[in-house]
User: Fold these one by one.
Assistant:
Number 1:
Amino acid sequence: MKPCNLGLFLMSAVLILSGCSPLKTAINPYEEDFKCRAADDTGKCVDTPKAYKEARYPDTAKEKTTADPDQQAPGNRYKLLAGLLEEGKKPLLQPPKILRVLLLPYRGENDELFMTRYVYLKIEESQWILTDINEK
């Protein structure tokens, strides 16, 4: 490229990228000066990542901490359990443990076709925990 052509090319690139060109309106015809018009009682104006974080982890949004909510979750569960243990006698029912088994398609004894399906098996019964019942 000739130095003159290179200079012209660089100048046009700077104009296009800086937004000082009519080409900008041809590429993006929409207004870019978005102003939030939400009233105080209807919500707030935040960017998408912040809105997601506030919706997914409402407690951490109020605290304004920079810690990762996924790392705080186990600690919060332990605090909740410790609070239950200290609170007094409050029985809890531990749910049963269910195992989901996938059965793949197979042919039966009389040439029947059994299609893919799930079978649910109870492998452990539910039980009461945090009670005064003495098991024998």
Number 2:
Amino acid sequence: MAVLKTKKTVASVETFVKSVKDKTMQSDSQIIIDLMKKATKAEPKMWGGAIIGFGDTKLKYESGRELEWFVMGFSLRKTAISLYIPGTVEKQQSLLKKLGKHKMGKGCVYVNKLEDVDVKVLKEIIAASAKSNKTK
């Protein structure tokens, strides 16, 4: 069985964010941290070397395999911010249409910078996902 490489670490979120050279990404990160922290009521934690996650959950696959994961999170990539917001793709199409410039992945929303999106809509998306995940 494959071992999950991305696990929660004790690394500092603040140090990681400060290590990002792009000042816009640094400030965008702080806004996203504040939004996700408020929605999940959880402190940010580093997952692996580049993901900031909030809360703890257990994912269960159809195969029966289970793994520890975060409720929601994000990662700073070279050209975009990857937002891991469960249920967004399936359940929040109407909000995504209002979000602004973004791309979709299987379980991610990618934005180049927060300036490209409506942060109020992003806040709604994050809050709805956090609420939905609390009921599971």
Number 3:
Amino acid sequence: MKTPLRYQVTHYDCGTATFINALMYLFEREEIPQEVVEYVTMVTGDRNLGLAGMHQGTSGKALAFLSSWCNDYVSDKGFPVRSQALLGEEEVSLREGSPLLEGIRSGAVAAVECCLGADHYVLVTGVDDTYVYLWDPYYDTWPMHELSVPVVGVRLDWDHPHEYNRVVERWVLEEPAGTPYSLNAKVGRDAVLLWRTDGK
């Protein structure tokens, strides 16, 4: 059985929620090993504020590490997932031929870092010539009341709880840093692609 995608429970666990949402999108609930969920939770939330025990989100390095760990886990346990970490503007872009776009077109989902007031992870589940379909784990009223800039080119969608809750015009993702849902995050572009490999 598929489970509706989840929302983050604090201001800072978007990376955790997004990586777990990638697995929830690709697999039935019964297929996801509990140890994978526990490991994702343990590794994410590593972006430190400079004070012991004070964390503010998940770094791209943590998601890249999880991507590599998933591939090793497949070898050890046979869990049918493949992952690829992407870094920089050439790879994390929706321009034709980019690894991100080609990965999504080939059936992958993508945990991508974008802008949403601060750097923020969302799950891209689909793309066409005009729109990007994504799940934003940050639950908020609409229009987003915490943002100081207007949200343009974005439509809320409550009708696809297993797939996406935002429909974003493709041009938005290439806008300058600070634009909601732009891929130009403050610390640079990063993403992780995940595929299901058993053909189901």
